[in-house]
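PROTEIN DESIGN WORKSHEET
SECTION A - STRUCTURE
LENGTH: 244
TOKENS:
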């Protein structure tokens, strides 16, 4: 569970969170939008856009001389994190596949306009050459270069700082959560919308709630990072397997 930082006034916390969030967003958007205009940055624009989400909060944490474990960079509950990640996948992925087929056709601009079968990805994995190597490589890339940086900023830094600002808590499935869970998820969704201003991008608010809960219940970024990466790859897998 996120630790609270004591001895700080709400105005100081609000100012810090706003400054770091706005600065990270502005730099991220500039790199993402305009990096493609320069040939030497074109291939690395999306990757560079992730950098502010790592380095800005990291600088703040180091300047404050706080332990990184307070912000979720710890493996102390790795076994529990892996177990909860597997449980989340088992519970969430089957209904998500059905919903993706029923309501999601045409919403996601990935690799295919239609999804014929919600479980065609199973056949695709079994019968497509190099499918499993693609899956493992995609999971590694998504975890290292997408999920973990985003989780460090939102569930690591931002959620921990907002937990120090909002004091009310309620118990949710075995752990105590507060308004930070909702605010962090809303900001996460808004960031995705700003990068790609399509209304459906705001739907990431809902999986973000689960990412935030996993962060609180394990005290680590491992579970939300793994589940976040798995969700990204699974969404791509559903579209790649649309002909299955």
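SECTION B - SEQUENCE
RESIDUE ASSIGNMENT:
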């Amino acid at each position: 569970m996120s630790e609270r930082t004591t001895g700080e006034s709400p105005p100081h916390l609000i100012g810090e969170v706003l400054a770091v969030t706005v600065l990270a967003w502005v730099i991220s958007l500039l790199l993402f939008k305009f990096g493609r205009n320069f040939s030497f940055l074109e291939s690395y624009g999306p990757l560079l856009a992730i950098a502010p989400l790592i380095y800005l909060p990291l600088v703040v944490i180091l300047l404050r001389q706080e332990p990184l474990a307070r912000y979720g960079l710890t493996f102390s509950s790795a076994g529990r994190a892996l177990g909860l990640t597997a449980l989340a996948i088992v519970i969430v992925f089957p209904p998500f596949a059905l919903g993706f087929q029923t309501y999601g056709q045409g919403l996601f601009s990935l690799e295919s306009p239609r999804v014929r079968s919600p479980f065609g990805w199973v056949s695709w994995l079994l019968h497509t050459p190099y499918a499993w190597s693609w899956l493992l490589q995609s999971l590694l890339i998504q975890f290292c270069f997408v999920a973990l940086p985003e989780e460090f900023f939102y569930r690591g830094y931002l959620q921990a700082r907002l937990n120090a600002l909002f004091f009310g808590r309620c118990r949710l499935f075995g752990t105590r959560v507060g308004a930070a869970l909702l605010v962090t998820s809303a900001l996460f969704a808004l960031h995705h919308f700003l990068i790609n201003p399509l209304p459906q991008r705001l739907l990431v608010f809902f999986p973000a709630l689960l990412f935030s809960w996993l962060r609180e219940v394990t005290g680590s970024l491992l579970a939300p990072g793994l589940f976040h990466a798995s969700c990204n790859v699974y969404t791509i897998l559903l579209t790649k397997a649309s002909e299955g």
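SECTION C - NOTES
The chain has a mean pLDDT of 85.
The chain has one domain: 10-240.
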